[in-house]
Amino acid sequence: MAVYHGPKCRLCRREGTRLYLKGERCYGDKCPMESRAYAPGEHGQGRRPRKQTQYGIQLREKQKARRIYGVLERQFRNYFKRAARRQGVTGELLLQLLEMRLDNSVYRMGLAASRSAARQLIRHRHFTVNGVVTDIPSFSLKPGDVVDVRTKSKKVEAIKDTFENRRRTEDQPWFEIDDKEMKAKVLQVPDRDMIPVPLQEQLIVELYSK
Known about the structure:
By secondary structure, this protein is of the alpha+beta class. The protein has helices spanning about 10-15, 30-35, 55-70, 75-85, 90-100, 100-110, 115-125, 155-165, 200-210, and strands at about 125-130, 130-135, 145-150, 175-180, 185. The chain has three domains: about 1-50, Ribosomal Protein S4 Delta 41, Chain A, domain 1 (Orthogonal Bundle); about 55-100 and about 195-210, Ribosomal protein S4/S9, N-terminal domain (Ribosomal Protein S4 Delta 41, Chain A, domain 1); about 100-190, RNA-binding S4 domain (Structural Genomics Hypothetical 15.5 Kd Protein In mrcA-pckA Intergenic Region, Chain A).
């Protein structure tokens, strides 16, 4: 599957906000958004701001969502189609589908410093879902599922240190986290006010509904 391998900080600068793609680096002074909070490229710093069209605003919001969750265009569009077929608010349903991905859940649990790190750990078979080793980052979780670190993987420094030093204030209420066993149970599908992402999902709905 195709993935983005370019510089992650460039994506944050393009969107004009921190997308937290590089873990702890994004919280410190070394984050480029502290010193270079302008668009990337040769003329980024001196470029005159362009007047954005409604389409441009909607497009930027969609790109921001894709980059936060680390999915490419076709996959993102498929998530939107799934959300559109369900009853409810399409924008909220779209975010719920993205939040219930295994890679995002591992990141939310504090077992990986970023979603990209979570994808790598999942592909290396460090996690189980309901006792079954799962190496598919896009695997969709549901309420009642238990995500656990494999016994031999609990000694991996990258996982252990990240979990012990995770930002406790960011623990999500739709997980029941067991600190001792390094596992978590999915309690519910998160409501919109539980999803801490700076997105206006209605703009994405408007973009795809044209």
